[in-house]
Amino acid sequence: MSETSLDETPQEAAPALLEVVHQPLPHDSALRHVQGNAPYIDDILEPEGTLHLAIGMAPIAAGEILSMDLSAVRQAPGIVAVLTAEDIRGRNDVSPALGDEPMLAAREISFHGQPVFLVAATSRKAARVASRLARFETRAEAPVVTVTDARQAGGTVLPDYAWQRGDADAALAEAPHRLEGELEIGGQEHFYLEGQIAFAIPGEDGDMFVHSSTQHPSEVQHIVARVMGRADHAVTVECRRMGGGFGGKESQASHWAALAAFAAQVTGRPCKLRLDRDDDFALTGKRHDFLSAYAVGFDDEGRLQALDIRHDARCGYSADLSLGVIDRTMFHTDNAYFIPASRIASRRLKTNTVSNTAFRGFGGPQGMLAIEAIMDGIARRLGRDALDVRKDNLYRPGHLVTPYGMEVFDHATMLPLIETLEASSRYRERRREVAAFNAHSPILKRGLALTPVKFGISFTLKHLNQAGALVHVYSDGSVMLNHGGTEMGQGLFVKVAQVVADEFGLPLDRVKITATNTAKVPNTGPTAASSGSDLNAMAARIAARTIRDRMAGEAARRLGDRPDRVQFRHGRVFAGEASMSFAELAKACVLERIALSSTGYYRTPGITWDRTTKTGRPFFYFAYGAACSEVLIDTTTGEMRLEAVDILHDCGRSLNPAIDIGQIEGGFVQGLGWLTTEELVFDREGRLRTHAPSTYKIPVASDVPAHFRVDLWHEDNREDSIYRSKAVGEPPVMLAISVFSAIADAIHAVKPGHPTQLRAPATPEAILDAIDRQWSQG
Amino acid sequence: MRRSLRFIFQGSLVELNEIDPTRMLLEWLRETRRATGAKEGCNEGDCGACTIILARWRDGAVRYQPVNACILLLGMIDGCEVLTVEDLARGGSLHPIQQAIARHHGAQCGFCTPGIVMSLVAAYLSEPRPVSRETIAECLAGNLCRCTGYRPIFDAAAEALADPVPVDPGIGIPGKAAALQALADGRDLLLGHDDRFFAAPAQLDTLAEMAAGHPEATLVSGATDVGLWITKKLQDLPKIITLNRVEALKTIAEDETTLFLGASVTHGEAMPALGRIDPDLDTLMKRFASRQVRASGTIGGNIANGSPIGDLAPALIALGCTLHLRHGAESRDIPLEDFFIAYGKQDRRPGEWVSGLTIAKPGPGSHFRCFKISKRTDEDISTVLGAFRIELDEERRIRSARIAFGGMAATPRRAAKAEAALAGLPIAAPAEWAAALRALAEDFQPISDMRATAGYRSRVARALLGKALTEIGGARSLTRIQPRGPVAETAHV
Q1: A161-164 CB contacts, 8 Å cutoff, 24+ apart
Q2: What is the tally of helices (H) and strands (E) in chain A?
Q3: Euclidean distance between CA atoms A307 and A168, whole angstroms
Q4: Could you tell me if A38 lies within 8 Å of chain B, comparing CB atoms?
Q5: Of B102, B134, B453, which has the smallest distance from its Cβ to A34's Cβ?
Q6: Using an 8 Å Cβ cutoff, are B311 and B385 in contact?
Q7: In chain A, positions 437-466, which contact chain B (CB-CB < 8 Å)?
Q8: Sign of the CA dihedral running A98, A101, A102, A103
Q9: What SS3 state is found at B168?
Q10: Pairwise CA distance, residues B355 & B261, whole Å
Q11: I want to staple B100 with a disulfide (CB 3.0 to 4.6 A). Which of A101, A188, B156, B458 is the partner?
């Protein structure tokens, strides 16, 4: 047996030099993005005979389809197949877990537009035209549409859930001050620029290859297999990139992939399903909208003593991810504040609308908005500056236990971060300037707010906190990288590649980034919960290290040194003075029969949350941030202009500051849209009236102020995350709460000293309504 | 009569003898030519992911315009060079706009990026320098990005647009001017046959004859509305006649007191002249949809389609505007406000078409104000649009008022009772406006819809009238979140 026997535990090479990690490198596809040659699924050249699919949609929101006449659909030009639930060979179920989402509704209709049949045609246009030719006989019921409707109807998609800490009732009763209220919080459409799409190509033996624009290829694989009635191994799902996801393709890409695979299975031809934008709006879930009713008790300084809050969420017709989403609302109802006694409750209300789903922040933003509105309310009641009230309520030594029992071990980041931003944004001077302006401006009012974010990192479903990777080194020294994370624009692929490049001491371009593929890395969790790089970079590093350590053994043998003195840098492998190129070493390893391929597997340590007992630690760590925003409103029309934004955000020791700043800016602006211009309007029949960008308004360039400053907070993650970085995907969304708070501040200036009640989104109408209420008080 | 569509694409002249009249340019690019750089994001001209550039010979020069390929009929690009993102990089070197966006991390998911690149390349080729941040925002208003928050795109644009306007555009075919001039042959174009055709007459008389001969045909000018009938309502429009090649309908004529706009003048082309009338009109035009839509959509088409909001119509009604209609050889003129009869119903017979309109400019003693209220400032349709033309006498009393609103009724309409109530009042006496403000409730009973409730619309209409009077009367404090622009030198105030 030689020293390099694979049966022995290989000795470790010297630690990687970090030359690529922490650098502000561009997105791996940047040059292809600007040239329009980064292919999305609809850009893939279709095989001859590909069929295009369109969905036949239910004409009612609730009730039954008594009969469906599809003869006109079948006779339309270009139609190859018209499929219904009866044609399904596996199970008619595209739900993530609970079996409550039919792929094609057979009789009972749960929301307006629910898919009831599928058209396959030789062109997309032919399929779309035919899909509208069905005649239905229905028995319609009055749909349950809004949260208010659902409260009355009483149906839920999952049981109510709550936790308590201390005696909230007694603490409320004893508190010197008490506020009660209800906050209306709107939903949000993802509006990923690339709509939902899947392209299924049948293979031999009934196998199916599916291109899916999904954040969760493994789940798509399992659901496709389920509806086909096949084992998971018969289905391969691949995703090179998405044109945006934001949570909207976490659980809700499955349906379209399942339909495409179903049609491909039945017709034996490649089948592509790309939803038209209006259909995407009508058929896919959104951020949950809420009514959150609260009573809060506090002392003369505004310190919280008790909070009793219930979040009533519109979940839509099925459970989807509402269990975890609303849990996260509860987990973030404290935001950064210590609450001695609390009861935090939630209801997952069932409605005849699309099933609401993950959206960047995953319920956290709604919980945080509620507590921040409460902070503003307390400040107004006491006549204190809201920032002072916020600072006084932060988690602090001796007051570190959250309402769910976890201790905020890394609390010490929050106050210095806030105070740094307070100074750099000139908060106090601007507060005086705003007051001076408002004193002499009857029509226009300014508002200012500085709000913090503390966001828990980890999936609160423990089993999702795992990841796998697959790394190959080829004999020419080039590296192929694959992992279970998906790329939706967030820069995950380049971050993971940076980590792998440094393990091998190679320039980034020697590491080939490849499409996420269930045949390469199985049983992955979704790319979600901001955890993509935390999990996948760790798994990839483990895979790369395994190979590197094997290679170090061979290098040591060849260069006459110990493996732990072998260093990989600049494309070469060094042992003292001696060195060889990485490519030479790779070649040598192949000749010496040393395996240059490895998987890597990682699971987040220390996560112990148990939802049933309501105990344990749900989060690996917290990500922190704060934003200061200033607005100007017109008190006669409700129009608003965002004047300035200053952000200070904690990415730990950033893996890639350029990518992270992009996540912060983009997240903030997405949150801005949620809280200002993006309004979902359903009519009484349960139809979404804002179903296209003509009527649903996400931010455009001019909504972003010229003064939009983002700085990173440079402090290593206290936990042993990948190179001490922190997750950054979701937390910045909640920085936009500063805008909502600033708008409320401006409204308050209309008639100071009275409570201000503003609903989200703060459209011109919502602002004007709040102004009218402000005038009418006292 | 020419029987083939001619345009330049990827360096070659394309001649198509047969097209389906409802074929969209984006479908042709992506499906027929597999040029997949332009993306379909919304299929209704709102997101800009499909933005491409049309180069055309107009008024003695090559013009570059960003347009939404998703709602542009293929038949409408006769005589153009179609420039897509695939045309930009040359010999491995990226266009300065591409370089800047990549360098500033201006793409994340990348799906909107080709469209954003093309919008900015259009500005690179023709926007007068220096380019302000406001102008960059205006260039980008028709391009939605859901990832970046736009800041890096602003930075990239500012950096690249610091270059001077290039003498040689450096993209597409060389010798563009001569080639495009040669394509602008002024011949009528007809594709298809009597039952199913796409016609693009170049001569006014041919248009008049065809429209009268096919009264059931769909007249299309910019297709920014008709395009959606096809892409969203999935209507089959077997006979389409476009007005967009008729030179005679592109006249812009101006004198001291009036501005004449031919029906096929695009919003983009009309902007400078309209903007000189009043800064509020300039702002209104800049907030009207997006550059892409303004480059295609025409003033005549906007009026002819009779949107209840019709972002421009209320402003023109308040100013005073005569609409010119033509049917065969007959012409007639009506006040613009009389054209709008009811929701979706205009005073236009089958085969009749809008040939142009004449706008009365405000003279001395005449004050104009116009306010657009929308959920989002840019690229949004008005919730309420209020336009006011107030004539003051020498004692600063209101001699007459023309008030028009969009979004307050099924059509753009004047507020007759409020106008009457204002006559004779001193402009500087807010206490006396109450009757006029109340009268608005008699003039309008708006509806609730996805943009706002009826109650909000009514409140805001009152507020806007109050704001106009306050400003004209001489406001002592700030009245708007976006200050009124400077008055152009040639405009009367």
Answers
A1: A161/A326, A161/A327, A161/A330, A161/A345, A161/A346, A161/A348, A161/A611, A162/A310, A162/A330, A162/A343, A162/A344, A162/A345, A162/A346, A163/A330, A163/A343, A163/A344, A163/A403, A163/A404, A163/A614, A164/A342, A164/A343, A164/A344
A2: 19, 27
A3: 6
A4: yes
A5: B102
A6: yes
A7: 440-444
A8: negative
A9: coil
A10: 9
A11: B156
Confidence tier at A3 by pLDDT (50, 70, 90):
very low
Contact A188, A223 (CB under 8 A): no
Q: Tell me how far apart the alpha carbons of residues B151 and A212 are, in angstroms, rounded to a whole number.
A: 30
> Cβ distance B381 to B443 under 8 Å?
no
Segment A615-620 shows an average pLDDT of: 97
Q: What is the nearest CA distance from A402 to chain B, expressed in angstroms? A: 32
How far does B4 lie from chain A, in Å, by closest CA?
24
Give the C-alpha separation, B201 to B223, whole Å. 16
Question: Of A182, A554, A730, A765, which residue is the catalytic one?
Answer: A730
The yes-or-no answer on residue A19 being catalytic is no
Q: Which residue has the tokens 């898919």?
A: A115
CB contact under 8 Å between A444 and B98, yes or no, is no
Nearest-angstrom CA–CA distance, B453 and A439: 31
Nearest to A689 among B37, B38, B450 (CB): B450
Q: What is the pLDDT of residues B152-183, one digit of tens each?
A: 999 999 999 999 999 999 999 999 999 999 99
Examine the predicted complex and report whether its ipTM is higher than 0.95. yes
Whether omega for the bond prior to residue B96 falls within 30 degrees of 0, making it cis, is no
Question: For B324-345, what is each residue's pLDDT tens digit?
Answer: 999 989 999 999 999 999 998 9
- CATH of span B89-160: 1.10.150.120
Q: Tell me the three state secondary structure of residue A67.
A: strand
Domain B5-86+172-242 adopts which CATH fold? Answer: Ubiquitin-like (UB roll) (3.10.20)
> What is the band of A10 on the pLDDT scale with cuts at 50, 70, 90?
low
Tokens read off for B125: 């080729």
Q: pLDDT for A589-613, tens place per residue?
A: 999 999 999 999 999 999 999 999 9
Query: Cα separation of A76 and B467, whole Å?
Result: 56
User: Which CATH number is B251-473 given?
Assistant: 3.30.390.50
> Alpha-carbon torsion A375, A377, A381, A383, what sign?
positive
Sequence spans of domains, chain B: 5-86+172-242, 89-160, 251-473
Structure tokens at A634: 């017109």
CB A119 within 8 Å of CB A132: no
- Tell me, rounded to whole angstroms, the distance of Cα A239 from its chain centroid: 17
Task: Using a CB–CB cutoff of 8 Å, tell me whether A200 touches chain B.
Answer: no
Whether residue A194 and residue B109 make contact (CB cut-off 8 A), yes or no, is yes
**Which residues from A are below 8 Å from B374, CB to CB?**
764
Spell out the residues 6+ positions from residue B129 whose beta carbon is closer than 8 angstroms to its own.
B161, B162, B164, B165
B102/A701 touch (CB, cutoff 8 Å), yes or no: no
Q: Can you spell out the DSSP letters for A688-712?
A: BS--STTTS----GGGS-SEEEEEE
pTM above 0.95, yes or no: yes
What is the mean pLDDT of the segment spanning B139-145?
A: 98
Give B373's contacts in chain A (Cβ within 8 Å).
Answer: 637, 639, 764
User: Cis omega before residue A761 (within 30°)?
Assistant: yes
The domains located in chain A, with CATH, are 30-38+466-603 (3.30.365.10), 143-405 (3.30.365.10)
Distances in whole angstroms, Cα of residue A209 to Cα of each of A82, A206, A272, B219:
22, 10, 12, 46
Give the strand order in the sheet containing A444-457.
Answer: A444-457, A621-634, A640-650, A707-713
* DSSP output for B394-436: TTSBEEEEEEEEESSSSS-EE-HHHHHHHTT-BTT-GGGGHHH
pLDDT in tens, B210-251: 999 999 999 999 999 999 999 999 999 999 999 999 999 999
Rounded distance, CA B353 to CA A524, Å? 61
Are the CB atoms for A747 and A771 separated by under 8 Å?
A: yes
